[in-house]
Amino acid sequence: MSTFGEGAARLAGIVGAGLGWSPDAFWQATPAEIAAVVAGVAAPQGATVPPADAALIARLQKEHPDG
């Protein structure tokens, strides 16, 4: 079983090599951001994401205010 640090270092290498991220970009990203990018890259060819509607935008603005 590997430690968290070993797993994180391995993932940093994969993200750096596969996506061209710098170490700083990797370490500043949240796990959710990394997962979203990986899921987007791994999406089947031709897959689309529907555009955000007004309700989604309003919810995101409420959850993540710009302060």
Tell me the fraction of residues in β-strands, as a range. under 5%
Query: What structural class results from the helix and strand content?
Result: mainly alpha
The residue fraction in helices comes out at: 55-70%
Give the terminus-to-terminus CA distance.
42 Å
Low-confidence regions: none
Mean pLDDT: 82
| Count of helical stretches | 4
The gross shape turns out to be: extended
Order of helices and strands: HHHH
* Gyration radius, rounded: 16 Å
| Biggest pleated-sheet summary | none
Number of strands: 0
What would your notes on this structure say?
- The chain has 67 residues and is an all-alpha fold.
- 66% of the residues lie in helices and 0% in strands.
- The chain has four helices and no strands.
- The longest helix has 16 residues, at 4-19.
Quick summary:
The protein is built from 4 helices and no strands. The protein has helices spanning about 5-20, 25-30, 30-40, 55-65.
Task: State the main characteristics.
67 residues, mainly alpha
Secondary structure elements and pairings:
Blueprint: H1 4-19, H2 23-28, H3 31-42, H4 54-63
